[in-house]
Amino acid sequence: QDEDAYKYLLRVCEPLGQDGTDEGCDPAAAVCQRKVGDGDGDDAVPRHNLGGVAMPEFDGQLLQILAVGGDVCHKGTPQEAHRSTHIIFVCAPGKVGEPVFIEETASCRYIFQWATYLACERKAPVVAPAAADSPCELHDPVSGAVFDLAPLRAASQNYPVTAGQYTYLLNVCGGLVGEGDLWGADSAADAAVCQTQPEHPDAAQVVGVASQAQLSYSDGTLMLQVRGGARCHGDQFERSAAVSFVCDEAAGDGTPEFVWEDLQCGYHFVWATRHACGAVHDTPCLAVDARDGHEYDLSTLVRTRGNWVASDAREGSKFEYHLNVCHGLNGDGPSLEGLQRCSAEVGACQTFRDYDGDLVGKDMGQVGKASVPTVDASGLLTLEYAGGQACHEGSHTRSTLITFTCGEGLGVPHFVDETPECRYLFE
After folding, report:
1. Average pLDDT value for the chain
2. How far apart, in whole angstroms, are the C-alpha atoms of residue 168 and residue 240?
3. Per residue in 113-122, pLDDT tens?
4. Other CB atoms within 10 Å distance of the CB of residue 396
5. Helix (H, G, I), strand (E, B), or coil: what is residue 99?
């Protein structure tokens, strides 16, 4: 504004601290404004404290932070006031997002909007689909995170966890490795967790079986619950196990640790591992036109339930296309159920019935860091998904190019053409 460029530093639920000091701001402030290019010398234009630390508030409709008590503005005039900051959080599935400056009011209140999945309401835990042996992968449609525990599967030796006189044997993505008689438990062919006593081999007990395992995610916690264990306490209860996976990038694969046993023979473990951090496809959905600085935000086109669908008139309308914008496909509809090629990592997929009447899916491009909308030199706004399934005997890989044009409402995608290089064009 006023031909000046301003930089804002913000912290949520804590002061700027050293980051503020480094920028010449009050370290006790939660929000600070400075002109871009200001130096840190005595003659520099003052930095402005725009408010202190404040906690988020939710009034049933709006999730917001109101930081008050900043520097005085319009001093000595009828408009004199303390600077303040109003951050409004809105739900944006699949993206962490960042604050966007909206406006400064006449009373020096600085208003920001922050679109993020962290502002989305969670009504129930996300549960991984049932698997033949044991669930191993889960996709959270709200955060866009994909959790894959397959790298933790021990192929040659189970995970031993010692707690007092007991040693627990665990494995994930299936049952324990080896024959049941190796740990002395009966009916252990399907066991995923087993309690053993090294000094009393015959006292081993199955804690839970792989066929009754459930992987779920709720409020930032990835949990594996394993039921179907041996009875306990005079046949009152059934043994079970609960493994809480904690995100720790520095832990590598990590190892499980015993926490406690509850009164109903529930055995609780914690496992710090990088595989609990989830691969969040937080693809920014904002494009900037380098010619004039105009921004185009496509985040309202992100689908978290179902997908955008386009038809193809070729071959008697045989083909159907499922697309998402800046986000992987959602597999919550019957049209994509069981199609591995149309997974959460794919941004566009072609489906059709083969000669046997079976539904087939073709990956038309992956969602990744390169899958962001762009504005070319002519002003064309496009989004591309590349690295899809091979075609023409491996000479090319499928890709998708979506061109967006100005129009009323959200609109719908339309199939335009397929190039000889298996590039699928949509508008």
Report:
1. 85
2. 12
3. 998 878 887 7
4. 15
5. strand
